[in-house]
Every structure is written in structure tokens, then in C-alpha cells.
Design brief:
The structure holds two protein chains of two kinds. By secondary structure, chain A is of the alpha/beta class. Chain A has five helices and five strands. A five-stranded parallel beta sheet of chain A has the order 2-1-3-4-5, sandwiched between helices. In chain A, strand 4, helix 4 and strand 5 form a beta-alpha-beta unit. Chain B contains 14 helices and 17 strands. Classes of the chains: A alpha/beta, B alpha+beta.
Chain lengths: 120, 593
């Protein structure tokens, strides 16, 4: 399972990436929507963990783009706003989301759920 | 009947009269309704009464002028007639004496018998003649016919003799003679063949003159009398003095014609005086004829009519004042009620706006804190991961405790920001049929153990039939859970909780959660739905529970109210629609509380 972490807060994604790596999960990270698109174009990821609110391409728009590039890739949204309004705007009705600050154990649980649904 | 009476009283009862005070005060558009009411009554009354007053005064003045004019005319007419009669009285007697002087002549008149015969004839013709005497040009009386013996009396130095000698005629004032009876003298000068003169003098009793005058007396409140030119009374007067006294009326100016003046007499009666200076064609006389009429007596009938008119005007004024007062009261009442209703709405809006503003602020703060919090959380988590997974410092309790402390604090902050966001959140509303009994049972499961442990009894009262509404079950559960949790916090051990649910009408259900706990102080009741307002100890509450509940109830198109008595308990009552459309739920604004 390879995960792409996308958040404009560089230190956050690095720390999260390292913590997941310590737990044996292969991760990559990007600090903007553009960078994420480039990475997904070049590499395969099972799950993308996207911050909803980012400068440039936001999480919702990014999810739409990534879905076109990698239709089988699952998405988990991170939101600091705690509001689900954004998700109504997006098309991903079955999208998973976690509110910041996230608990690593809950993130792991969510990853399991996501992957479980895709029978991977 | 009583109901209608009450409605009428309510309509005109001045609700606005007590001074406006309390929380509604700042929202009233008009601060002083009493003033508005007073000004309204004054202006409307003045508008209605001023024309009435002007018309009444004008009418009175016009009538008064007409009446005065009529009274003056009447008085003048009486005075003129009486003047003619008095003038004629003197002229007639002077003519008779002149005729006697010319016709009979000096020689025969000085004959005592002849003179007596003339006296008798004159008495027969005119009456009231006391005596006759003939005075020679020396002033010595040379013949006399009458009851006294006045022969050879000398009048040469008397005023009347000189007057008659110069003007041929003479009329005296009234005076008391030897008999102490009022009388007057008239005298006529005659010429003898030798060119010398003599005077025929007659003494007149005044009775006949008095009779002549009193025949013109014009009524009960009128007086007619003669004065001399110094205004000494020459005949008796009913109101202004006795004969030979000074008349108790102001003196009058000389006039050749009959005159009328209006004045006030010594007893402050309004009077009209008609007067004439009596002058005969032969000579002037010392007499002034006076006709005095009291206005009050003459216009008695008019005063009676005026009294009736005053009553009508007074009654009209009273009706106008009452109608204006009632109308003003009704209008100001309506205005006041509309203003009060607006003020109440403003208070509610202010509360709602305040909660909405706080909600937005809370959401903003939470969002801004969440990102750095996430970083702290991950950093601390990563350090702990390193220590545990890579087994560095794993036995250093101080470091491990410190990291746990950071993580715990981060978690607590996360709980608070989540609550803040929950307070402001515009979550999806998922409408479905909900069985109230089931929802209440689900909620009570959370507190079952605590109730047993604390010996708190729980009673649920519901109608037997299933009470179902279409709403968001999650939100309803959260609402009830918050209220039940609050009730448990408010109660000491051994108390009781009561939940009631019923359909208030075909469109709404009412659910109440009552406890017999500590109650909410009056000063706090307005604030309990505001975020961060809490009376609980700091470690037990964030002050968001009821704010969130308020927001959720609004989200479900319901309303929430609270009744509480200190040390007796509190009842929260929520009213929810039996059916709400999903769109309404989704489009609802972010709740303020």
C-alpha cells in the first residue's frame, strides 16, 4: 500500500510521512496540488490523503483531477475546518474525511477501511 | 357580554402609560408614549374646540350687540316720549298763565275775587294749582288767591323774579314749601297799558307731574325720575335716591336731544340710561328727565336662553374631549403595541445575531488553531514514535510523561476546537421518520448506569400510540442527550428526571426534559444559550452544550424554551415540526448557537 500525503504545511506531511513509515507504510508527500498531480502522473498510489484547504488547487479540485489520472486511487480528506460543507460541493459522496488534528491510530483505521472497501 | 366588555376595556386601556423599562427599552422607537398621548389629545381637542369657542364667542358678541342696540332703542323711545309729556306739562301751564295775563289783564287780576275765579277755572282745567299771585314790577305781591295770606310780600330780590323779568317765563325747581309738600312755581310776565310789567305766579303741586312721569315707567327693573341740572332728585326714584337727594349715578353731559348711555351703577348693575334736558318752547327748565333700565332685568329671557346654550356647548365640549381621549388612547395603544412587538423581535434578533456572530468567530478560531495543533500533535507523536518504536529513551519516564502531556493537551485542544466547530457547523440534515419513544430510549441508555449509581429516577411520559415525526434522528438524539446530560449535572443524587413528549397539534410535537435539581438563577436564564456560558466548574463544561443544542433545534425548524426556579428545578421544552422538508434543513443558515 502506497500513500500520497498532500498538504501545504510541509512539516506536517513530513512528520506524518515519517510516522507512517515507522509503521511500515510506504508514503510519499507533496506540498501543493500541482506537485501531487505530477507525482500521481508518474507513480502509482493506493490512497491519497488530501488537505482540503490549500493555496492553488484545493483538496476538492485536486481529488477530481487525481480521479481522472488514477481512477482506482482512494482518497481521504483532511480538514482543519471541521465543516462538511466542502464535501457537498465535491462529487465524492462516499469520501472519507478526518478532522485535524488527526490521531495516527484513527488515520490507520481509516486507511484500513478505505483499502478494505477496495478489496485490496 | 362580559367578554365584549373586557375587549372594549382592553382597547381603551392605556397600556403605554407605565414607564417603559427593562430589556425592551432601547428598542422602542418612541420613548415617551405619555407625551405623544398628551400632545395628541391637546392638539385634537384644540382643533375641535377652538372653532367652537370662536363661534360661541362671536355668537354671544353678536347677540349682545343686537340686544344692546334693541335696549338702547327702547330706552331712548321711552325717554323721548316722557320728555315730550313733561315738556307739554310745563308748556300747557305756561300757555294757560300767558293766556290769563293777556286776556284778563292787570286790573282784573289784581281784583281778589276775580283772581280767585281764575284760580278755580285753572284748577278745573289742569288741576294741581295751589295758588295764584300777582306781583308788581317792584317785586311786591299785590294780589293773591290761595290758601295762605301772602299779600304785600316782596319778591323783588328773589332769583325767580329776576329770571322772569328778563325772560318773560319762569319754571322753578321742586321745593318744599310752607306745607312741607313738594311743589314748584311757574311764572309769566305781562305788560300793563302804561308799559310797566307785572308777573302772574302760580304754585303747582308736583303730584300731577309725578303721575305723568310714572305713567311712562317701563317695567319692574326700570326707573324714571327728574333731577335738576346739578342732578339733585326732583321726584322720587326707585333705585337712585329720594327726592332732594343727590342722584347716585354719574353726572351726564348736557345735550339738546334725548341721549342714551350705558354704564354701571353704584351697585355694579349694568344699566342703560336715557336722559333729556327739558326745555319748553317758552323757556328753559331746571329739569333733566332720567330713564334708567337695568340690563339684567331686561334680558332675563335672553339669559335663560344663553344658559341653555351654555349647557349645550358644555355638553358638546365634554363629548369632544371624551371622544378625542378615547380615540387618542386607541391610536397610541395600537402604535405602542406595534412598537413593543418590534422591540421584542429586535431583542430576539439581537440574541440570535449575537449567537451567530460568536459562532462564526468560534469557527474561525477553531480552524486557525487546528492546523498548528495538527503540527504539534504530529511532532509530539513522531517523537513518541521514535522513543517507542526505535526504543530510544523508552525508559526515561520524565521524557515519556512530558510527551504524553503534550499529546494529552493537544487532544484536549482538539476536543474543544471540534466542539467549537460543531457549534458553528452546517452539517447535512438527514430527514427520516423517527419514533420518539425509540429515540428517547436510545438517549437514556447513555445515562442508565449513572442513574442507578446515583439513585436518580427517570420517568418517561408519552402517549400510548406511536409518536413519529420526520426529522434528523442524529440531531434529535444529540439535542436530547445534551438536555439529559445537563439535567444530570444539575441534580444531586436521589433526585428525579422526567421526560414528556406529546403532539401539541397536527403540525408539531412538544418534548420536555424536567429535573428537580438546582435550577437556573434568573440573571443567567437569558445567557444559557450563549456559547461559553457555563456555571459548571471549568473541568466539567465548555459552555457549548446548550449553544449547540439551540443551534440543532433551530436546524430542525424547532424552538426551545426554558422554565426554571432556583432550588426547585428546570424544564427545557422543545417544539419540533412533525414534518420538515429536507431542502429546508439543508439550506438552513449556520446556526448561531
Amino acid at each position: 500500500m502506497k500513500i500520497l500525503l498532500v498538504d501545504d504545511e510541509k512539516r506536517f506531511v513530513i512528520l506524518l510521512s515519517k510516522r507512517l513509515a515507522l509503521r511500515g507504510i510506504d508514503t510519499d508527500h507533496a506540498n501543493s496540488g500541482e506537485e501531487a498531480v505530477a507525482k500521481v502522473t508518474d507513480h502509482h498510489y493506493d490512497v491519497a490523503v488530501l488537505d482540503v484547504k490549500m493555496p492553488g488547487i484545493g483538496g476538492i479540485a485536486l481529488e477530481r483531477k487525481l480521479r481522472l489520472l488514477a481512477p482506482g486511487m482512494k482518497t481521504i480528506f483532511l480538514t482543519g475546518h471541521g465543516s462538511e460543507t466542502d464535501f457537498k460541493i465535491g462529487s465524492a459522496e462516499s469520501a472519507h474525511y478526518l478532522s485535524k488534528p488527526i490521531n495516527i491510530e484513527i488515520l490507520l483505521e481509516e486507511l484500513k477501511n478505505v483499502m478494505g472497501k477496495s478489496s485490496v | 357580554m362580559i367578554g365584549r366588555f373586557r375587549e372594549a376595556v382592553k382597547l381603551i386601556w392605556p397600556e403605554f402609560y407605565p414607564k417603559i423599562s427593562g430589556r425592551l427599552n432601547p428598542y422602542f422607537t418612541i420613548a415617551d408614549y405619555r407625551k405623544i398621548w398628551g400632545i395628541g389629545i391637546t392638539l385634537l381637542t384644540a382643533t375641535a374646540l377652538v372653532p367652537l369657542a370662536v363661534a360661541t364667542i362671536t355668537y354671544y358678541q353678536m347677540v349682545q350687540r343686537l340686544v344692546d342696540s334693541e335696549l338702547v332703542l327702547r330706552t331712548e323711545r321711552v325717554a323721548s316720549n316722557a320728555r315730550r309729556a313733561v315738556t307739554f306739562f310745563f308748556e300747557e301751564r305756561l300757555d294757560a298763565l300767558k293766556f290769563t295775563v293777556n286776556e284778563i289783564g292787570f286790573d282784573q287780576l289784581t281784583d281778589a275775587d276775580h283772581l280767585l275765579a281764575v284760580l278755580r277755572n285753572l284748577r278745573l282745567g289742569f288741576g294741581g294749582l295751589a295758588d295764584l299771585s300777582v306781583i308788581a314790577d317792584t317785586g311786591v305781591q299785590i294780589a293773591y288767591a290761595g290758601p295762605f295770606k301772602f299779600e304785600e310780600k316782596n319778591y323783588g330780590n328773589q332769583v325767580w323774579f329776576e329770571e322772569c323779568k328778563q325772560h318773560n317765563y319762569y319754571v322753578s325747581e321742586t321745593f318744599n314749601g310752607y306745607r312741607n309738600v313738594p311743589h314748584m312755581i311757574i311764572a309769566v310776565k305781562g305788560l300793563r297799558p302804561d308799559g310797566s310789567f307785572f308777573i302772574l305766579r302760580a304754585t303747582l303741586e308736583t303730584e300731577r307731574l309725578f303721575q305723568t312721569l310714572s305713567s311712562y315707567e317701563p317695567g319692574a327693573h326700570a326707573d324714571i325720575f327728574l333731577t335738576n341740572r346739578s342732578f339733585m332728585l326732583q321726584t322720587p326714584s326707585k333705585y337712585y335716591g329720594d327726592i332732594f337727594e343727590k342722584m347716585s349715578l354719574p353726572p351726564l353731559n348736557y345735550s339738546r336731544k334725548t341721549q342714551t348711555v350705558m354704564s354701571i351703577d353704584n351697585k355694579l348693575r349694568s344699566i342703560i340710561t336715557g336722559y333729556a334736558f327739558i326745555t319748553t318752547k317758552q323757556t328753559g327748565t331746571p329739569f333733566v328727565l332720567m330713564v334708567v333700565k337695568q340690563k339684567a332685568g331686561m334680558i332675563g329671557a335672553l339669559l335663560a336662553v344663553r344658559s341653555n346654550f351654555n349647557w349645550v356647548v358644555g355638553l358638546g365640549t365634554l363629548i369632544i374631549v371624551v371622544v378625542v381621549t378615547v380615540l387618542c388612547t386607541i391610536m397610541v395603544n395600537l402604535l405602542f403595541r406595534a412598537d413593543r412587538s418590534k422591540a421584542e423581535t429586535m431583542v430576539l434578533m439581537e440574541q440570535s445575531n449575537r449567537l451567530a456572530s460568536i459562532g462564526q468567530l468560534a469557527a474561525g478560531v477553531a480552524h486557525e488553531i487546528n492546523n498548528p495543533l495538527a503540527l504539534i500533535n504530529q511532532a509530539a507523536g513522531y517523537i513518541k514514535d521514535l522513543f517507542i518504536i526505535e526504543k530510544r529513551y523508552q525508559n526515561d519516564e520524565v521524557i515519556m510523561e512530558s510527551i504524553d502531556c503534550i499529546l494529552d493537551a493537544g487532544d484536549k485542544c482538539a476536543v474543544i476546537t471540534k466542539q467549537l466547530l460543531g457549534f458553528a457547523r452546517n452539517v447535512d440534515t438527514k430527514i427520516q421518520k423517527v419514533n420518539l419513544r425509540e429515540v428517547i430510549s436510545d438517549v437514556l441508555i447513555f445515562h442508565e448506569k449513572e442513574a442507578v449509581y446515583r439513585n436518580i429516577s427517570i420517568a418517561v411520559s408519552m402517549p400510548k400510540e406511536n409518536l413519529e415525526i420526520e426529522t434528523d434522528p442524529g440531531k434529535l438524539e444529540q439535542i436530547l442527550l445534551n438536555l439529559v446530560t445537563n439535567a444530570f449535572h444539575a441534580m444531586e443524587d436521589g433526585r428525579s428526571l422526567k421526560i414528556q413528549a406529546s403532539a401539541s397539534n397536527e403540525e408539531a410535537v412538544v418534548i420536555s426534559v424536567s429535573d428537580n435539581g438546582c435550577g437556573i438563577p434568573k440573571e443567567n436564564r437569558q445567557k444559557i444559550f450563549e456559547p461559553f456560558f457555563s456555571t459548571k466548574p471549568k473541568d466539567r463544561g465548555t459552555g457549548l452544550g446548550l449553544a449547540i443544542t439551540y443551534g440543532l433545534v433551530k436546524k430542525l425548524h424547532g424552538s426551545i424554551s426554558v422554565e426554571s426556579r432556583e432550588n426547585e428545578g428546570t424544564t427545557f421544552t422543545i417544539t419540533l415540526p412533525i414534518c420538515i422538508r429536507e431542502e429546508e434543513g439543508k439550506n438552513e443558515d449556520t446556526p448561531g448557537g
